[in-house]
Amino acid sequence: MPDFPLTGGCLCGAVRYEVTGGYDGCAHCHCRMCQRAAGAPVVPWFMIKGDHFRIVKGALKFYKSSDAAERGFCEECGTQIVFQFLKDKGASIDVTAASLDDPEAIEPTSQIWTASRLAWMHGFDAALPAREGN
Asked: 22 CB contacts (<8 Å, ≥6 apart)?
């Protein structure tokens, strides 16, 4: 279990947040909505109780990505920060693990919506040559 609180934010720094309590798991999501929202093949999310999350700087803009859910992002740079189901809005929030200041603080332990996983994602980390650096 990581040390709480955890902090994170968007690419441009306009939005900052804090997670004050434990989490209920972390999963790589392969769904098409996450792929399109992030422009990436997979998005790691960690799940927390809504009262364990607070914005400490700036504000999130929300986009209703389906009839069931919305996504919160920075209006300036577009970084996706949260996902929440509308039926229990505020009770439970999914937070993008890569938006943490220390993205290795929470490690994914499962994968979801794998029917949408891109074929070239199978074993990608071991199959391709790697280059270090930013």
From this structure: 1, 4, 48, 52
* Residue 97 domain boundaries: 6-119
The contacts of residue 88 (CB under 8 Å, 6+ apart) are none
- At residue 34, the 3 state secondary structure works out as helix
Residue 10 lies in a domain: yes
Q: Which two tokens stand for residue 108?
A: 């994914």
Share of the chain above pLDDT 90, in %: 77
Average pLDDT of the chain to the nearest whole number? 91
pLDDT tier at 112, thresholds 50, 70, 90: very high
What is the CATH number for 73? 2.170.150.70
Which amino acid belongs to residue 25?
G
Give domain status of residue 70, yes or no: yes
Coil vs helix vs strand at 69: strand
**What span, in angstroms and rounded, lies between the C-alpha atoms of 67 and 12?**
29
- Three-state secondary-structure class, residue 54: strand
Element (H, E) at 37: helix 32-38
